[in-house]
Specification:
Elements (H helix, E strand, L loop, with lengths): L11 E3 L2 H10 L8 H7 L6 H5 L3 E2 H17 L6 H5 L3 E3 L10 H23 L14 H37 L4 H42 L1
Antiparallel strand pairs: 1-2, 1-3
Length: 222
């Protein structure tokens, strides 16, 4: 699925139990502490669920690392940030997924199914006597398909020529004498309109042919 840009790039940390206990029991001076540390220190008397759901950020860990440097100068036991950070979970920002258009997804699934059907037919027809000689493999079928394509192209060309002739000659016969440049412009406009319409119908016809082909492949597989 397509992904949107990340709105909030903030990295959050789910602190481990050991890290939370150290902050609650050993951090005293929180005058310049960031929000996450301050929240934990002020939540000593709160419910355990509230403390367990606390989240820290990078600036909280940076401040805590500086605090530990001062703490180790007077402490009897050396404690380092990486030791407290064990078992903590780092939550990275995730982009939001944009759902695909249902019509586009349906079209993709249909094309994928047709492609899989063709590949399956190609792999199995050499070992299955029922599929070894399909109509699609005969010369007559191939010639029929070529004739269909040639007829469609010829129909397109003749339709465009007829549209140009109507704009170039037909309009003059209906209205009367017209300037040559104006007649040429009318012919080109009519030809373009006919060409666009023919391209649309040609695309629809090719789509129907693909659908018929997939149906025939499926029937042979069955």
């Amino acid at each position: 699925m397509p992904l949107e840009s990340i709105v909030d790039p903030t990295i959050t940390i789910k602190p481990s139990v050991r890290l939370i206990d150290f902050i609650l029991n050993n951090v005293k001076d929180i005058n310049d502490a960031p929000g996450g540390i301050t929240f934990l220190c002020k939540s000593k008397k709160s419910k355990k669920e509230k403390i367990a759901n606390a989240m820290l950020k990078i600036e909280d860990l940076s401040w805590l690392n500086k605090y530990l440097k001062k703490y180790r100068k007077s402490a009897t036991k050396m404690i380092y940030l990486h030791e407290l950070f064990d078992d903590s979970n780092v939550l990275l920002p995730m982009p939001k997924e944009t759902p695909r258009n249902p019509e586009l997804e349906a079209r993709i699934q249909k094309l994928r199914a047709q492609q899989n059907a063709r590949e399956y037919q190609t792999m199995t027809k050499s070992i299955d006597s029922m599929r070894k000689f399909l109509p699609e493999d005969s010369i007559a079928y191939q010639m029929k398909q070529i004739n269909k394509q040639l007829i469609a192209v010829a129909q397109f060309i003749f339709s465009v020529i007829a549209g140009f002739a109507f704009g170039f000659i037909g309009v003059e016969l209906i209205i009367g004498n017209l300037d040559f440049g104006f007649r040429l412009l009318l012919g080109i406009i009519c030809a373009l309109i006919v060409a666009l319409a023919e391209i649309y119908f040609l695309a629809m016809k090719l789509n129907e042919n693909d659908f018929d082909t997939s149906k025939s492949i499926k029937s042979h597989q069955d």
